[in-house]
Amino acid sequence: MSILLVAEHDNATLNDATRAAVSAAKAIGGDIHVLVAGSGAGDVAKAAAGLDGVAKVLHADAEVFAKPTAEALEALVVPLMANYDVLMAVASTTGKNFAPRVAAKLDVMQLSEIVAVESADTFVRPIYAGNAMMTVKSSDAKKVITVRPTTFEKVGDGGSASVETIDAPAGPFKSQFVSEELSKSDRPELTAAKIVISGGRGMQSGDNFVLLDKIADKLNAAVGASRAAVDAGYVPNDYQVGQTGKVVAPELYIAVGISGAIQHLAGMKDSKIIVAINKDEEAPIFSVADYGLVADLFKVLPELEEELTKAGL
Amino acid sequence: MKILVPVKRVIDYNVKVRVKPDQTGVDLANVKMSMNPFCEIAVEEAVRMKEKGGVDEIVVVSIGPAQAQETIRTALAMGADRGILIQTDETVEPLAVAKLLAKVVEEEAPGLVILGKQAIDDDSNQTGQMLAALLDWPQATFASEVVIDGGKASVTREIDGGLQTIAVETPAVITTDLRLNEPRYASLPNIMKAKRKPIDIKAPGDYGVDIAPRLSVVKVTEPAKREAGIKVESVAELVDKLKNKEGVI
Ligand SMILES: Cc1cc2nc3c(=O)[nH]c(=O)nc-3n(C[C@H](O)[C@H](O)[C@H](O)COP(=O)(O)OP(=O)(O)OC[C@H]3O[C@@H](n4cnc5c(N)ncnc54)[C@H](O)[C@@H]3O)c2cc1C
Ligand SMILES: Nc1ncnc2c1ncn2[C@@H]1O[C@H](COP(=O)(O)O)[C@@H](O)[C@H]1O
Question: Where in this chain does the record put each Electron transfer flavoprotein alpha/beta-subunit N-terminal domain (chain A) (predicted)?
Answer without folding.
Answer: 3-181
